[in-house]
Amino acid sequence: MEGINKTAKILFFFRPFSPNPEVQVVIFVVFLVMYLISLGGNATIGVIVQMNHSLHTPMYFFLANLAVLEIFYTSSIAPLALANLLSMGKTPVSIAGCGTQMFFFVFLGGTDCVLLAVMAYDRFVAICYPLRYTLIMSWSLCVELTVGSLILGFLLSLPLTILIFHLPFCHNNEIYHFYCDMPAVMRLACADTHVHRTALYIISFIVLSIPLSLISLSYIFIIAAILRIQTAEGRHRAFSTCSSHIIVVLLQYGCTSFIYLSPSSSYSPEVGRVVSVVYTFITPILNPLIYSMRNKELKDVLRKGLRKF
Question: How crowded is residue 288: how many other Cβ atoms within 10 Å of its Cβ?
């Protein structure tokens, strides 16, 4: 009981990116700008889809949900990271605070991965079964798939967070990261973490490999269907609705696989922190940019909206 009480009283601190305060301020400004752009871009997509009746289709419904998810996802990391950048790593976070951040980060990140697989299924039905699309992708199914993504994210996050925060933490309380990431926190435990690392690897493999396999399978059928389209214009139109999704999938799955599926013996805190910047700050910026730049219908609505101002 005494060990649990000791652990509960521990405060974690995040290691600064640089010992130079001026460098920290520059990084703070860069992170703040990226965070604000991410919020603005994703909020714009959500509002545009909500306000334009022509975009009330399953594809844009999922895109709007992805945009809202990205807002919460990056907001689970950014405020604490920005506070620590300004304080040179002197802003403390309690065990409960660290666990809460970890829970929401894994919950929203896991939901993101599942939702990307759902979006691939939507494109598969649209391209391979266009005449039956509205029948198959009913609004009730769209809502069920979105809620199912949230439930799966929750079921992934809760047991992993509980498992890690049942570890004892002793004297070393400096996290070599800018948020409470699982591999970084586990390195501070003063106990054998072999079982915990194995559980994290297995669950991460399942969560990343199953949706990615479904996405890959969907695109095999999609590409086969596109190749059967006789006109070049038709092939281009069909592919343009998928290309932005493919880019986002490669970014999201590439970075998360690098962090969570690399052998623990080869885990580098320095590299892990840099790669994490990509999928916590940069990817949420790129998502609205990629979708708005590569989607003609969304670009047309954006242009009309800008002309009104």
Answer: 24
Q: Give the pairing of strands 93-94 and 11-14.
A: antiparallel
The single residue listed with the structure tokens 């079921």 is: 155
Torsion sign across C-alpha atoms 143, 149, 155, 161: negative
Cβ atoms 79, 219 nearer than 8 A: no
Report the SS3 class of residue 136. Answer: helix
pLDDT in tens, 113-143: 899 999 999 989 988 898 899 999 999 999 9
Residue 241 pLDDT exceeds 70: no
Residue 71 one-letter amino acid: I
**Beta carbons within 10 angstroms of residue 270's beta carbon:** 8
Structure tokens given for 286: 């790129």
Q: What is the Cα–Cα distance from 177 to 80, expressed in whole angstroms? A: 12
The winner for highest mean pLDDT among 7-16, 193-202, 208-217 is 208-217
Q: Tokens 């990391």, residue?
A: 77
Tell me the H-state helices in the chain: 2-9, 21-51, 58-75, 78-86, 95-128, 133-136, 139-164, 182-186, 194-227, 232-260, 269-277, 283-294, 296-308
Contact 248, 116 (CB under 8 A): yes
Give the range of the structural domain holding residue 303, as residue numbers without chain letter: 2-308
Which range, of 76-85, 127-136, 196-205, 267-276, averages the lowest pLDDT?
267-276
Number of separate domains in the chain: 1
Rounded CA-CA distance 28/113 in Å is 28
Q: What are the beta bridge partners of residue 14?
A: 175
Report whether 128 contacts 225 (CB < 8 A). Answer: yes
Q: Which amino acid is at 133?
A: Y
- Furthest-apart CA atoms within the chain: distance in Å: 73
Q: Quick one: DSSP state of residue 169?
A: B
Does the structure show a pLDDT above 50 at 2? Answer: no
User: The domain spanning residue 228 has which CATH number?
Assistant: 1.20.1070.10
